[in-house]
Structure formats: C-alpha cells, structure tokens
Write a structure and sequence with these properties.
Helix content: 25-40%
Strand content: 15-25%
Number of helices: 13
Radius of gyration: 24 Å
Oligomer: single chain
Structural class: alpha+beta
Number of domains: 3
Number of strands: 14
Largest sheet: 5 strands, antiparallel
Order of helices and strands: HHHEEEEEEEHHEHHHHHHHHEEEEEE
Shape: elongated
C-alpha cells in the first residue's frame, strides 16, 4: 500500500502547486491596493512553495498550502462587483428595457459617433420596437488575431424598424484595457451593450486595426428570435440592477448566448469545445444548420460574409445596416420570409382572430397567447417565453457568444 500513498501524495502535491499558482495570480490581479499586488503575490509563492519543499516529509507543507489557498479563495469570492465606478465614456451607462405587450422600449441604447477608436462622443438613446415586427436574428463574428478566438455580436432584425445589436463585453473603467489572463479573475464586470449597428459594428470595421468582421443570417424563425430577444432584455435588466463579474471561462460573450438559447428552447447547453474556442463557432453553426447557406460550402459562405469593405463604403450612412447586407446570402426578401403557421408543441396553436387570450395555468402560471401564436408564461410581472422543444433554429450553442449566466427579467 506504500505505492498508493506515494501516488496519493504526488497527486495532492500537484493539486497544491496548481492552487498556489492560482492564488498568487488572484493576489496579483485583484488585491485592492495596487502597489501591494506584486509583493503579496511573490511572498505568497515563496512561503507556500517553500513549505511544500521543506516540509514535505511530514505533510505539513500540504497543510500550509491548502490552508493558505482556502484563505485566499474565501477573500476572492467575497469580492463584489459595483455599477458605481469611473467608467469609460462608452461604458458609462447600461441598458434596461420595459416590455408592455407587443411594445418594447430600450433605455440607454448606445449610439457613439467615432472620430478615431479612442476619440468619440456617445449618445444614450431611448428606442421602441414592435415585437410583431421581429423577423429574425443575424450574427456578426469578429476576428482580430488568432483564428481560435473571436467576438460574436447578435443583431435582432426588426425590418423597417431597423436592427438592435447586442454585444456582451467587459465593462471597463477609465484607463483599463482587456487582459486575456486578467479575464479569468475579478478584473471586469459583465456588460450587455444594446447599440446601433453604426456604433458597435462600424467601430470594428472602420476604426479598429486588424479586426475582420463577418455577417451571417441565422435560421432562427421569428418565434425563436422573439424568445431570445426577450431573454437578452431580461439579462440586461438584471445586470442593470445588480452587476456580475465577467469571467473569460464561465461568464463571457459566448457562454451567455449558449445559455440564453438553451433556456428559451428548454434544452441542455450542448458541450462543444468550439464554445470556448469561439473562433470556430461559425464552423459549428454551419455544421448544425444554424446559418442560412444558400447551398454554399462553408469556405464560400464565409468568404462572401466579410463586410469590412462594405462597412467602410457605407460609413455613417443611415442605410448602414442595409448596405452591409446587400447582396449577401440570407438577406433577400425571400429568405427573410417565414411561410406557414407557427407550430407549438407539435400542433397548430393559432387562436381566434380576436387576438390575445389567457388560458389555463401552465406550471402554476398563466399562459398568454396572441393571434400569431406567440406564447409566454406570465409569473407576476415576469414574462417567460415558451418555445417548442423541436423548434428549428439554434442548438444550445449560440447565437453568440455561449455557457453561464445568472438571472432573468426584472420587473
């Protein structure tokens, strides 16, 4: 049995070393007093690794390492995010929405006018949309270096009422940039940015260097698009009321999309390595039938989806959204039209032309349906969209950025 003890001790030592490295990094990134971060991190490493090295015969080194890790972990998990900080101008406000029947009003929708990437002025607008006009969902995917990492932006198509772009990002304070390693710690709060496409897309195509943007039409039908849109608004309302930490692994742009889609379709989030290495998410969506392809191969579809030149030509035109879509697969009137009745739970749920009715309770909540078969559970002031399990559209993997979220629609 001695060899078993040796294996167990070796595994415990490896775990202790990994915990020690994580704790030292947490001190380096998140200690509230910046001048003490590096000294505290180095001292922690010296003391803990020294204990593991010099006290290994008595196992006290492991005790020191695990106790020290526990203390740091308790402190780290006690750190709370705040909405009251010296935010950058483009992060000064967070959006929130009111839902009143078929009308949605979004407050503090961002519309920045850029002179350069770092020189801009931002307007925070209030815009209203008719849910009945929502036709589908588009996805922009941006690459800026590694082909393995990208940033998705979901855009909801309201036809003549234009588009609402939703980008899930870090919310940065003045002077703060993004750190890939820091994103695994408590450096940033999570932001849902509702924006005009001339802001959030044109920033990436026209002003940032070395960013390449691609635009795809998804196969999400209006009912699924509606449910995802309302879910996004719920999430934005939650973050407006109470902030959350961003985390590059568990609470980021793609993981939140994956969970939103899974929840509205009432399915589990699918595990796929391309959710984390989201530079390959366009391939995943193509394979899963989540993109309108026009019969093209994936390389051909992606090639025609590149919009940088079109966006530069459109610049600040009021027709920016139309111009960047012109001539691309998925954006003709034919592909934007959804034919046939909406099927709910395997049967036609169209109700009388009289419009909305409230039926029997479903799971302890009233079931509200409109004449176009858009149904939702109503729990107090909460609206919980219902989407058929077999609905065509996305897998749990997206439209964007895809895996942990907390919260739903606040009143």
């Amino acid at each position: 049995m001695r060899w078993l003890r040796r294996i167990g001790f070796a595994l415990a030592t490896i775990i202790a070393v990994l915990f020690t490295v994580w704790a030292a990094a947490a001190l380096h990134f998140d200690l509230p007093v910046p001048p003490l971060r590096t000294p505290a991190s180095v001292l922690y490493l010296l003391v803990t690794l020294g204990a593991l090295l010099f006290l290994h015969r008595t196992h006290w080194g492991l005790v020191v390492a695990f106790v020290a890790f526990g203390i740091v972990a308790l402190w780290w998990f006690s750190l709370k995010p705040s909405n009251n900080r010296a935010w950058r101008l483009d992060n000064a406000k967070t959006p929130y929405a009111d839902v009143n029947g078929e009308q949605v009003t979004i407050h503090d929708l961002r519309n920045c006018n850029y002179r350069t990437e770092e020189s801009y002025t931002c307007d925070w607008e209030t815009r209203s949309y008719d849910l009945a006009a929502l036709r589908g969902v588009d996805i922009f995917i941006t690459w800026w270096g590694s082909p393995w990492i990208a940033h998705p932006i979901v855009s909801f198509d309201f036809g003549d009422e234009n588009h609402v772009a939703m980008s899930i990002e870090t919310r940065n304070v003045v002077g703060q940039g993004y750190s890939a390693i820091g994103g695994f710690f408590r450096q940033y709060t999570l932001a849902y940015i509702a924006s005009d496409e001339r802001d959030v897309i044109r920033l990436r195509t026209n002003y940032r260097k070395n960013e390449e943007v691609y635009l795809f039409r998804t196969t999400a039908k209006p009912l699924l698009a509606r449910a995802i849109f309302l879910d996004y608004l719920e999430r934005a309302n939650r973050l407006h009321a109470g902030p959350e930490w961003y985390n590059a692994l568990t609470n980021n742009c793609t993981t939140n999309i994956a969970v939103s889609v899974a929840e509205v379709r009432d399915i589990r989030v699918r595990l796929d390595w391309r959710i984390l290495l989201n530079g390959k998410m366009d391939e995943m969506m193509y394979e899963d039938g989540e993109l309108v392809t026009g019969g093209l191969s994936f390389p051909a579809l992606k090639d025609q989806a590149h919009i940088n030149q079109a966006a530069r030509s459109a610049d600040d035109s009021f027709d920016f959204s139309r111009l960047i879509r012109e001539g691309r697969i998925g954006f003709t009137e034919k592909t934007l039209t959804v034919e046939g009745p909406v099927q709910l739970f395997g049967e036609n749920r169209n109700h009388s032309a009289g419009g909305e009715r409230t039926g029997s309770s479903v799971g302890g909540s009233a079931l509200r349906c409109s004449k176009v078969a858009n149904c939702s559970r109503v729990r107090g002031n909460r609206i919980q969209p219902l989407v058929p399990h077999a609905m065509e559209g996305f897998s749990a993997v997206h439209i964007r950025s895809l895996a942990v979220r907390a919260g739903r629609l606040s009143p």
